[in-house]
Design goal:
483 residues; 6-stranded mixed beta sheet
C-alpha cells in the first residue's frame, strides 16, 4: 500500500541466495521425476494449507478484495496449474526422438531433444493476482527441475511476507526462496546472473528489467500487458457482449493484464450497448462502496491515477458515464479506495485513458464504420496482450484475427484463453516476450538440448567422404543432398 515503509533486501543477500541455490543445483545432478513431483506437491501444500489466510491477507492488502475473486482467480487458478504439472511432468520430461537427414538414420545415427533444467530461475511477480502470478509460473519452473527465487510485489506487503514464512516451512532455501523489498530490491534482483528471469508488470518496467538482464545475457520471459481491444461485429448479440465484457472488466475492479481495455462497435450500436452495459453492471453490483464483492483499487495512488483519466477525458470533451447504482458517496466515505465503473464514450487518442493501460473499471467505447477501419486502428498501436472478437460472421472474424497481431485471442468472450494450461500465455512485442502455462511453460523454463549419437564402430564421416583427402564420394553425396 502507498505510504508504507519497505525494508529492502541488500544486493549481497540476493546474490548469496542465488549462489547457494546454484551450488545445490550443480551438486544434485539429474533432477528426477520423483524430486520434481515432490516439490510440486509441496508447493500445492503451501497454497492449500494456507488458503484461508491468503484470502484474508490479500483482502487486507487491497483494502477490500472479494473472497470469491481470490478463490476463483488465485486459489483455483494456482491449484489447477500445480495439479496439471504434477500429472504431466513425467511425460513432459521424456526425451523426444527426432528424424535425421537421409542417410544418417540408416547409418546408425540417432537424435533426440532432451529437456534439461536451466538451473536457478528468478521470478518477479505483480500485485494484482498475488497467488496466481507466483504459483502458475512456479509450477512450470519446478516441473522443469529448476531452483527458484521469488520476489513478490511490495504492494501486497502482508501477503508477500506470508509467502516468505510458508515457503520456508515447506522448502529449503536452496530449493525455493522468497526475497522481499521494493524498488531497490527489484533492481538488485534483476541484476543477478540468473539462468532465466521472469517478470510480469508494465512495459516501462519490463524495459528496465531486460536492460539489467542483458548485462549477464540472462534469458527473460516478460509478461507486460497493454491495451487489449474488443471488436464487436455487426452480428454480435449486444446483451451477451455487455454481460461478458462487464464480468471480466469488473473482476478485481479491472486490475487484470488481460482485461478488455477499450471496445469498438458500429456507430449505430453504441447507445444500445451503453444501455445494456449499464444495466448489466447495476444488476451485478447493485451497490459498490458497501459491497464486499466489489474489489478496491490497490492503493490511493492508483485510484487517483484512474480518477485522473476520467477528469482528463471530461476536460477533452468526452462523454463520461459513471455507473453508481446506489448513488454512493465515493468521495466522502471511500476509505477502501473503491472506484465505480465508468464508460468513456467516443474517446480521442489525445486522452490519457487511450494512451496507457487502464488497469481499472473504466471502459472507453469507440465506434467505427468498417471492419478495415478498426483493424487499421489496432495495427497503428502497440501489439496488445489480447484481442477479443464478438460475432457470428466467419469472414469478418477471420479478417480481424489474421490481419491483427496479439498475444492471444478469445472469441465471443474475454480473458478466458489465459486460464487454460493447455494454451501458451504470453505477449508479443510491447506486450511481452516468451510464453508459459502447461507444457509451453515447461519448455520456456527448460533448455531443450539436442543430443545426436553416432555409432562408435561406423565412421559416418568416412562413409560420406568427409574425412580428407576428399574424393568423388564427397561430391556425389553433396550432389544427392542438393538435388
Amino acid at each position: 500500500m502507498d505510504g508504507m515503509h519497505y525494508v529492502e533486501t541488500p544486493e549481497e543477500d540476493i546474490a548469496g541466495v542465488l549462489a547457494r541455490q546454484r551450488e545445490a543445483y550443480l551438486a544434485e545432478g539429474e533432477v528426477t521425476l520423483a524430486t520434481r513431483q515432490d516439490r510440486l506437491k509441496r508447493a500445492l501444500a503451501v497454497l492449500m494449507e494456507n488458503k484461508d489466510e491468503f484470502i484474508r491477507l490479500i483482502s487486507e492488502d487491497f483494502g477490500n478484495r472479494s473472497d470469491d475473486t481470490t478463490l476463483f482467480a488465485d486459489i483455483g487458478g494456482s491449484a489447477s496449474a500445480l495439479k496439471d504439472a504434477i500429472k504431466h511432468v513425467g511425460k513432459w520430461m521424456r526425451p523426444e526422438k527426432r528424424p535425421l537427414q537421409f542417410p544418417l538414420g540408416l547409418l546408425g545415427a540417432k537424435a533426440q531433444v532432451v529437456p534439461q533444467p536451466k538451473g536457478v530461475v528468478g521470478l518477479i511477480t505483480p500485485w494484482n493476482f498475488p497467488l496466481t502470478m507466483v504459483f502458475v509460473p512456479l509450477a512450470q519452473m519446478l516441473a522443469a527441475g529448476n531452483r527458484v527465487v521469488i520476489k513478490p510485489s511490495e504492494h501486497t506487503p502482508q501477503t508477500s511476507a506470508f509467502f516468505a514464512k510458508v515457503f520456508a516451512e515447506k522448502f529449503e532455501e536452496t530449493e525455493v526462496a522468497v526475497i522481499n523489498g521494493a524498488v531497490q530490491t527489484s533492481q538488485a534482483f534483476a541484476k543477478q546472473p540468473w539462468d532465466h528471469l521472469m517478470f510480469t508488470g508494465a512495459p516501462v518496467v519490463g524495459k528496465l528489467i531486460m536492460r539489467a538482464a542483458a548485462e549477464n545475457l540472462t534469458p527473460v520471459t516478460l509478461e507486460l500487458g497493454g491495451k487489449s481491444p474488443v471488436v464487436v461485429g455487426e452480428s454480435a448479440d449486444l446483451d451477451m457482449v455487455a454481460e461478458r465484457v462487464a464480468t471480466m472488466k469488473l473482476l478485481n475492479a479491472g486490475q487484470i493484464c488481460l482485461a478488455p481495455d477499450y471496445i469498438n462497435l458500429k456507430k449505430d450500436k453504441r447507445d444500445a450497448f451503453v444501455d445494456s452495459y449499464s444495466k448489466t453492471v447495476e444488476r451485478m453490483y447493485p451497490s459498490m462502496l458497501a459491497n464486499d464483492q466489489y474489489t478496491s483499487i490497490i492503493s490511493p495512488r492508483h485510484r487517483e491515477r484512474l480518477e485522473g483519466y476520467l477528469d482528463d477525458a471530461r476536460e477533452k470533451g468526452a462523454d463520461v458515464r459513471v455507473i453508481n447504482p446506489a448513488n454512493e458517496d465515493f468521495i466522502g466515505q471511500n476509505q477502501g479506495n473503491k472506484l465505480p465503473a465508468a464508460l468513456i464514450l467516443d474517446p480521442t487518442d489525445d486522452m490519457k485513458v487511450m494512451q496507457e493501460e487502464i488497469f481499472g473499471p473504466i471502459l472507453p467505447v469507440r465506434t467505427y464504420d468498417t471492419t478495415d477501419e478498426v483493424v487499421d486502428y489496432v495495427n497503428e498501436h502497440e501489439r496488445p496482450l489480447a484481442l477479443y472478437y464478438f460475432g457470428e460472421d466467419a469472414a469478418e472474424q477471420n479478417k480481424v484475427l489474421t490481419k491483427t497481431t496479439s498475444g492471444g485471442v478469445t472469441v465471443n468472450d474475454v480473458l478466458w484463453h489465459g486460464g487454460h494450461e493447455s494454451l501458451p500465455f504470453g505477449g508479443v512485442g510491447n506486450s511481452g516476450i516468451g510464453a508459459y502455462h502447461g507444457y509451453d511453460g515447461f519448455k520456456e523454463f527448460s533448455h531443450m538440448k539436442p543430443v545426436l549419437k553416432h555409432p562408435s564402430k561406423t565412421s559416418i564421416g568416412r562413409l560420406l567422404g568427409v574425412v580428407p583427402p576428399y574424393t568423388d564420394k564427397l561430391k556425389k553425396n553433396v550432389d544427392r543432398m542438393t538435388k
